[in-house]
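> Could you send the ABC transporter substrate-binding protein prediction when you get a chance?

Sure thing. Input:
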Amino acid sequence: MTGLRRIFARRFWWMLCCVLAFGASQPASAAYAIAQFGDPKYPPGFTHFDYVNPDAPKDGTLVLANPNRLTSFDKFNPFTMRGNPAPGIDMLFESLVTGSADEVASAYGLLADDIRIAPDRLSVTFHLNPRARFSNGDRVMAADVKYSFDTLKSPQAAPQFAAYYADILRAVVVDAATVRFDFRQPDRGLPLLAGGIPVFSHKWGLNADGSRVPFDRLAFQQPIGSGPYRIERYDGGHTITFRRDPNYWGAALPVRVGTNNFERVTYKLYADPTARLEAFKAGEYDAMVEYVARNWVRRDVGKRFDDGELIKQAFRHHNGAGMQGMVMNLRRPLFRDVRVRQALDLAFDFEWLNQRLFFGAYTRLNSYFADSDLQATGMPSAGELALLEPLRAQLNPAVFGPMTVQPSTDSPNSLRENLLKARALLAEAGWTYRDGALRNAQGQPFAFEILEDSGQGPSMEPVFTAYIRNLAKLGIRATYRTVDYALIQKRYDSFDFDATTLRYPDVQVPGVEQVSRFSSQSADQQGSDNLMGLKSRAIDALLRPLVHAQTREQLIDASRALDRVLMYGYYVVPQWYSNTHRIAYVNTLRYPKTLPLYYSAEGWIVSTWWRAPPSQAQAQSQAQVPATH
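Output:
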């Protein structure tokens, strides 16, 4: 039930969220790991992360279904704008550093075995592990790192990469095994932003005759990365199988011990959610992450569940909730008045939906950083006010008061009361009811379309049916339309929509991704993450201290100040979140006893689960971990 984003952003945000979180703890000598605040959790010489099983067997095949809304793929290159990349393709690429899933902001060497941050923080230098190899057997060299960076910043890659790396001036080959990144300005996040750049060989796309396929035209040419898996076979853009590279160079690294336990990982892409669910019940794949509460209760049932062949379990996570909601396209004049946007928020009856449709499984979102210490609450702190006061003339005065909370219909409140408030706001904005509709001074009716991806199935339809019914009581005519992925992606890229459901993925340490989502500069960049078209000098000003925060306290103040301004802008009708991952899986799968803290469900399954050995295949699966674990 999440909104659709650019597909490459979905695939790489998990890696980039780690990258954007990291910075340097000491501007001095070489390090095996660095942390933005304090010291890394794991000391020199650590053998593995706490949330893996270092003795997990390395065998078996994991079969999964669509990890997102894609129903087919037409390329292996996830870094370009056009086309749909194959699921799981990120397993082929690695970066200089990698994060751990039980720390907010630490990074450990992966391709790099040594990290040096300049005393003036204007550059970072990485030394490459001499064992690091690409899938073709070539050693990973500094020139490959520079080639990857230069390519990703070029017009041949998706434009978001140039935005992410805007403050990295250049990559410099110091010697064959050493690369340096120079920065526009000192910043604690930039060393690890550079360290998280995905690295691929300069030979990817090189033909036998020496000619080269342009990077933006790479489709089914085999990627040459350094990751633990290689493509074994694929079929018609609907099925792909990866096989663990028997010569994988990094298997013994502490950051890799206990991970990548399956010999093969296969993805099968189904045409719609109903077919996907029925295929799981029939045993066609091994694990399913359920995002629809009603399905979890009513549809994810049957004989195989009753017999214990399939297990349903909710796993606690500590990810920030991010933001999910109905985004209004501010490029449309209809939504430019904040009073109109607030009125649309008042018409959304979350309590009714949670009771009737969601079985009480969700909590209403009141923040862009909900369920974290970055969320603004109560009155602004002194640190927040120091950032907000210089912008007072540009801000809603309410920003300086108590933090806004979403309207409720729980007693003594009611939907009727909320709709009366909405009607008054609309009247102030020049919208009055006459001739059978809500109209402006020119007589134009208030009407808009809510665009959704048909790939999510019918789960959102009852939500918007109820919402549209509430809007109709105000005289607003809203329509609900679903289109297939290819069409909706084109419309998103060109900002051709009125309103749509969007989910901004959670981040533990906000950084450059917030600029891509909310800055004025990104609003006119086709394909950008700023789908709402937000242009605000005040928000631009708040993004700077957030990106350049030097302490955790500064980051919290900047995040909370930004949160207040965004929430009082009513750019989104917030929906809901859950602090658990709902996973159904076959009883022959196993997972480590210690859960990570910050993780995606699909990534956790692929990276750290394993198949029980044949001798244990008939045994009952491990005991369930409570959701509050």
